[in-house]
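Ticket #4471: structure export looks truncated?
Reporter: QA, pipeline team
Priority: medium

Steps to reproduce: submit the single chain below to the structure queue and open the exported record.
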Amino acid sequence: MKADPEDFIGWLQAEYGLQANSARDWPSRVQRAFRLVGQLNNESRQLAALEENSEFRALTTGVKSQLRRAVRLHWLYERAQKKR
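Actual output as written to the record:
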């Protein structure tokens, strides 16, 4: 994750009303997704690469859902930072 994890956590709390403990889980989920396929240059490519990854496909449905959500949140955060 290129961005500062603490800034991402703060953004999650402000934008989505997450409690600190819940918000702190998301940067590690983003990192896990990036470890599987690398950090690509847009959300749709990132998600497509995850879906094609054999390690990702072997994960439980719940974990796959969390990783997809983490990627979506990461890209929402990235777009929000560009608007600043």
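Status: closed, not a bug. The export was complete when the record was re-opened. Leaving a note from the reviewer for reference: Residues 61-83 form the longest helix (23 residues).
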